[in-house]
Amino acid sequence: MFYQSIAEYYDFIFPPSEKQRAFIEQELSGLERKTLLEAGCGTGNLASLLSEKGADVTGIDLDKEMILKAKTKVPANGRITFENLNILEIDQRWAKETFDGVVSFGNTLVHLKDKKQVLQFLKGCFMVLKPGGKLLVQIINYDRILDNEINALPTIDNEKISFERFYDYGPGDNHIDFRTILTVKESNTVMRNVVSLLPVRQKDLKCLFEETGFEKMRVFGGFGGNGLTSDSIPLVFSAMKPV
Predict the structure, then answer these.
(1) For an engineered disulfide with 45, which of 16, 78, 93, 183 has Cβ 3.0 to 4.6 Å away?
(2) What mean pLDDT comes out for the span 213-233?
(3) What is 143-197's CATH topology?
């Protein structure tokens, strides 16, 4: 699997982000004593930042290697739990109105097969959220990618790794292939991967949120709270379950 192969180097590719933590804290009006679910937690970096601010966090990921690495970061205060779980099984795992917030960053959503599965995920989040709870989702701004036929994202490069990212298009815009080349500089090891993604456009995602029952939707072009533009690389959604 794609993420299993890069799990060992994931923290060098996607290090902890204080901007993400601050965005969540602002959207939820604080983190102290909040119960949060992170869908697609990777190696647990964001969950760790959230727990440091007083939140009780459950992180789930489909990849076992990611969860194994995440479990090494569980603090002594016990505010984090990690589970190997499909994000489509949220409503089977937890009771109604369990969480104050559900977070899904890192382009997790577009690894689902189709819009039917996206709707299934949103409905699961809706069910486990408390009234007034928020769902926060971040994906790539695929309107920008598709409209401009962009075939690459900026390379992530640091002293440990180089991570090259490309898009290969098929007919239509139902799916695109995400092709990556990870180079580990110390050993000069090269890992190549291809994974199929569902490039969800903003208007389609908005319709799915509305169909689920969410309200007070807001769209951002980054975690700084800036508005979405045609040049924005990320697409960030915030939506609330009605009180």
Answers:
(1) 16
(2) 95
(3) N-terminal domain of TfIIb (2.20.25)
